[in-house]
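Retro notes (design track)

What went well: tokenization of the new backbones is finally stable.
What didn't: we kept losing track of which sequence belonged to which structure.
Fix going forward: every design gets posted as structure first, then sequence, in one message. First example under the new rule, 146 residues:
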């Protein structure tokens, strides 16, 4: 099992030149997040997603980019791998915790705006009693970043 954060990041953010605005990625991600990349994720990342879901890749969270890759695997890849089943959402709490921890420990500030959007998305996906209050805070934070 030789999974690396760059495996996820190179797939999810194919233009690693980091010169593009978030809008450049909007159509690309829209397709990814609406099931347009399910086959590619299932064939290329099923084992990695299982490893992330079972905690085998938790060490990725030691770095900002590793944390981002783990959030994408738990929050986005799981939705493709287990689409239309409860398992598709079973990683939401883990992904949201990683995002919140990354905001607190400084990892969040090391990433580009289009990368940190996936911290927000992970938190938004994790619904709970404080969901609306969290979403209002996130909306305010997004305006500061973009």
């Amino acid at each position: 099992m030789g999974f690396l954060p760059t495996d996820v990041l190179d797939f999810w953010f194919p233009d690693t030149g980091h010169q593009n605005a978030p809008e450049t990625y909007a159509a690309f991600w829209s397709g990814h997040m609406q099931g347009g990349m399910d086959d590619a994720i299932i064939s290329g990342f099923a084992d990695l997603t299982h490893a992330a879901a079972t905690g085998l890749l938790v060490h990725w969270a030691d770095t900002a980019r590793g944390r981002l890759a783990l959030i994408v695997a738990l929050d986005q890849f799981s939705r493709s791998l287990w689409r239309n089943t409860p398992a598709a959402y079973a990683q939401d709490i883990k992904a949201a915790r990683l995002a919140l921890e990354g905001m607190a420990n400084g990892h969040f500030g090391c990433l580009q705006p289009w990368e940190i959007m996936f911290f927000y998305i992970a938190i938004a996906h994790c619904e709970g009693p404080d969901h609306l209050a969290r979403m209002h805070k996130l909306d305010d934070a997004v305006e500061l970043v973009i």
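Added context from the reviewer: The chain has one domain: 5-145.
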